[in-house]
Amino acid sequence: MKNVLTSAQWQLLLELCSLAGEFQLSLAEKLFYGTISSDEIGELCELISNEFLMNGIEENFEPNSYGRELEALMDVVNRRRLL
Question: Residue 75: pLDDT band by 50, 70, 90 thresholds?
Fold first, then answer.
């Protein structure tokens, strides 16, 4: 993959995808091998975004440390759309 995820980002993505099901795990694999489509990237970004909204923000709507990890993950995943 040209925009390499850190090991922590890769682990986080795999955890999110495994909780969501087999289809999302296959998207993570496609991302790793660079065979993912723009629409599929959108699905991964939606998964990350949903997690951010549920667990990544504080009561004042500022991101917590987990939320900042999710934002960084989304940035790397979303960059694949430009390739």
Answer: very high
Residue with tokens 């296959």: 26
The pTM for the full model equals 0.89
61 torsion bin: left (phi>0), alpha (psi -120 to 50), beta (else): left
32-41 CB contacts, 8 Å cutoff, 24+ apart = 32/1, 33/1, 34/1, 34/2, 34/80, 34/83, 36/80, 38/81, 41/77, 41/78, 41/80, 41/81
Residue-wise pLDDT for 30-43, tens only, equals 998 989 999 999 99
